[in-house]
Structures are given as structure tokens and as C-alpha cells.
Amino acid sequence: MPGHAVSSRSSLVTRWPALRARCRSTAQTCGRSATGAPLSASSKTSARRSRTWRPSAIRPSRLAAAGARLAGSSIDALPGLDAGQLWHPPCALSVLSILDDSLKTSGGHLPMLQSITRGDSMNIAVTSASAHAAQRRRLITALALAVLHPGIAADQGFPARPLRIVVGGATGTVDDAHARKIGDRLAASLGQPVIVENRPGASGILAAEAVANAKPDGYTLLLANVPMLSINPAVYRKLPYDAQRSFAPVSGLVRGTPLLLVSRALPVRTVAELVALARARPGKLSYGSPGVGSVLHLAMKQLEQLHGLQLLHIPYRSGADAVNDLIGGRTEVQVNWAAVAQPHVHAGRLRALAVVGGVARKPALPDVPTAAELGMPAFDATAWSGFVAPAGTPPGVVARLNREIVAAVRAQDYLDWLTLLGGEPIAGTPAEFAHLIEAEFERWGKVVQAAGVTVE
């Protein structure tokens, strides 16, 4: 119906300035300017408190419903709308609302998508054509995805060159081993080499900064962990990246709980005996950790706070260095990862007193109780790692990487290896990983504040 198309187009053009204003407002609500640029520090604080609209909150049913509104007649372009704005669901739904008002379905005809191009503006061209119900459903879904997630088809031809995984630990560390095992599987499934790049030091800040500043094309991934995204923002007064805005979550990888360990030379076999000895010798018992503000350092601060203890902290360059001095008797106690400590516990070189976090004992150490079993649920240093890409990476590329990473994590040989390390797989959707990151950001922020740990 040509007349209807002209009328719809005219109505849309007339109302377009108001729509752009609505997009500008809703984009700012999501914490970005109308051009997609980050807001000021004060605006960030306000945006962080607003949880109403998140890309992960859009369900497939809502996508389909929104797409149904697009079943109207011809429009040629929506000028001047930055594609980045449409990543914000309120802005996208504003677009759909105006289209719903402006475009009406012709009787017995379905507008068929001819082209969607993305750049500085989003162009949609449709024409009337007969179609049966299955075609209609497919069109509605595709159109809704295109509008709500511009760049959804950007994974076509990806990857065309090698990828890299940046790790915040040195070669031979647990994170490095995870990255190499997953990287090998990704190389096989994606058909491109995957290079592991180690950038150790500064609690993962160097690695996180490198990925935050990388091109958002999916070719650079960060094996992120609790210090990088949850602890560093609370410990360091200034960071060269924004833990909540600089990255696009791809998939969780693994979750683990460390062990409370003592030297064999220390005459204690339970947490209660350790607490009694530490109270009798305030400031005398020493513990090592991989550095100020690390998960293992904060775990020991939790133990001190829970029981009113005074222990001497000795920072090391790595958890492996710290455990070596514990074995040698140069320190008396520490919290360290099961992957590092289990072999020494089995060999009788160290004594494990508790699993620090979770509700389940470790299968490899069935006689070691959890802290929760001992009446200390707040003594919890559960940590995790997972993959993130630079913010702005096309959703289609993120989705492709997510599929391949999840498949790699679910491979039986990787799961068997993970069990030996005492870890638990947490691979899932980007939305699930984003939710975990947000929750952990708040949890560890409280732990750091209670411990009073800061680094200039």
C-alpha cells in the first residue's frame, strides 16, 4: 500500500527529533552519553546504582515481541542514530515504540526485510510481500535481534587471524595453565592459532589494562579473575581501567576455594588450636600471601577479624613462593589455593585445617572440613576466573567465543583435570558471568573496606 508507506514515513520523520531525545535520555540512564561515550565520574556513580535496564535482561520472548512491532510498511532510514545507542534496551525499545505507532501492517501482507546496514546510522528497508506464518516468525525474530543488538552478524568470517589470551600470571601459574588448555581447544575449534600472552605483576592490573585498551574485535581476550574485577577497584585509589565498564563478559571459567594451611612444625591440628596459639602469641605468627590486596591476603585478614588475632603479613611475588617458605618453616600459616597446596598436603609437608569457602568438602581432601562446618561461614575466599573481551566487542563475536569456550570447558579431559586441581566449572552465558562479576564486585568491596586495605 504505497500511500500508507508514505504516510508512515512522514509520521516517522516528523517524530524523529523526539525519538532522538528519548534515546539520548535512556542512553544516559544506562551510564553512557548519546554518542556512546562514558559519562563523568558523578554520572557513573548514579548509573551504577541503576539496575533497571541491562542488555542481559532482554529475554528472547521480549525480543520476539519487540520485533513483532516492526511488522509494518516501508521506511528507508533512521538518520543520525548511533548504532552504539541501540545496545541500550531502553533506547531500542523507544525506537520500536515509535515504529509501532508510525507503521501499520497491511492487510494480509508481511513486510520482508531486504537489508540492514550498520554504521553511524541504522538503515532498514522493507517491502510488502506475501509470506506464511513460519517466515513471519523468522523475520520478526531476526529483525528484533538486529534492532536490539546491532552488530549481531559481525561474527561472519570471524576469526580470520590468530587470537590472544592475556593472563595476569607468569608462565606455570594456575591461570596460565587454564589459558593454555582452553586456548588449545579454541585453536582447534576456531581454526586459528591462540597465543597466550603473560603479563604478570601489579595484581593483574597490567594484563587488564592491555585488554581494556585493545581493539574490540574479539581477537583479544583477558582471563580475568577476582583481583582484576572485584578487589583492585576497592584496593587501588586509581586504576588504568574501569572494572565495570571496560570489558564485555564472555564466559565464566572456573570457581575454587582455597585451604587454610599450617607448617608441619606448628603444634596445631585444628582451627581452634591455631586461634588459641595465635592469641597466646600476638604478632608472632607470620603468614605469606601473593601480595597486598590479593584474595589470599584478604582471606587471612578475615580470619584475624573473626577471632581478634594479630598476625604478621609477609607478601611474596607469587603463591608458589609463599607456600615454599611455609614448607620450609620460615612462616607458620597461610591460605593458599588447593591446586598449589594439595600435593604438599598429600605428601605430608603441610597440614590443611579447613576449606575456606563453600559448603562442600574437596573430594581429594575428604577429611578437611569447610569453614562453614566449623561455624565460620564468613571465612570465605571463594574466587573465580573467566574470559572477558574489550567493551564494544560485537555481540555476535561474543556469542561465537562464548559457544566455543563453553564447549571447551565441558570437554571431559578438561573437567577431569579441573577436578584434580579442586576447581569447579562455571562456564555459562555472558549474562550469567556479568551477574557474577557484579555480585562479586559488591562482596569483595565490603571485605576490603572491613580489612582497611588500600594501595596508592
TrEMBL record:
Pfam families: TctC (PF03401). InterPro entries: BUG, Bug_dom1. Residues 27-56 are annotated as: Disordered. Signal peptide: none annotated. Belongs to the UPF0065 (bug) family. This is Tripartite tricarboxylate transporter substrate binding protein. It comes from Ramlibacter pinisoli.
